[in-house]
Structure formats: structure tokens, C-alpha cells
Specification:
110 residues, alpha+beta, Alpha-Beta Plaits, 4 helices
Length: 110
């Protein structure tokens, strides 16, 4: 996993990075496996782990697994730590605030 937990720990608060308290955070991850059986086995382990409740989207294509996690900003460190333990092959591709379309439209119209 190339996303360092030190990055999260080094931030005094995520508020400075645009992540407010009670803000939802979207984490995108990608994992490659040696064969499709290994990917099936790992996705089963993922959904049976505490991290499984944060998975909002999972897409498996052959030996590749794309994941999207939806978590509260205060649970980000737990999510990354657990991902590293459950799927050490995973590489975090992005972390961004979750933007809900209906909220963005409401703000723009006011």
C-alpha cells in the first residue's frame, strides 16, 4: 500500500485539508492479484472484516479489484490501517471529501 499512514498522522486535523468534522470521505483503492481465485478469496475476507461496512462499491475484473470506501473523516485512519492489514496488495489511489449532488445543488441555488 503506497499511501502512508504517516500522512494521516502528520495532519493535526483533516479540517485544514478540506475535511470538516462529520464530513464523509471517499477512499479509492486498487489491488492486483496473481490470479482470479486469489482476488475472490481476498474480497470475501474484505467483506467479512470490520472494513466491509465501509465498502460502497467493489468491482472485480479478472485479477484486479477496484474499491471505493465511504467513511467519516474521523474514521479515515482506521480505514487505511485496516485496509493495509486485510488487503496488503491494495494501493490507495485517492482520498477526497464525499460530495452529494443534492447538497451541492442546494448550496449553489442559495
Amino acid at each position: 500500500m503506497d499511501m502512508s499512514l504517516a500522512w494521516v498522522a502528520s495532519r493535526g486535523t483533516l479540517h485544514d485539508e478540506g475535511f470538516g468534522t462529520c464530513q464523509r470521505v471517499r477512499v479509492l483503492a486498487l489491488a492486483h492479484f496473481a490470479d482470479s481465485e486469489a482476488s475472490r478469496e481476498r474480497i470475501r475476507a474484505l467483506f467479512h472484516s470490520p472494513l466491509g461496512i465501509y465498502v460502497s462499491q467493489a468491482q472485480r475484473e479478472g485479477c484486479e479489484l477496484r474499491l471505493e470506501f465511504d467513511t467519516a473523516s474521523e474514521d479515515l485512519a482506521f480505514t487505511l490501517r485496516t485496509l493495509k492489514r486485510v488487503l496488503p496488495e491494495a494501493r490507495v489511489e485517492g482520498i477526497a471529501p464525499r460530495v452529494f449532488a443534492h447538497r451541492a445543488c442546494a448550496r449553489g441555488g442559495s
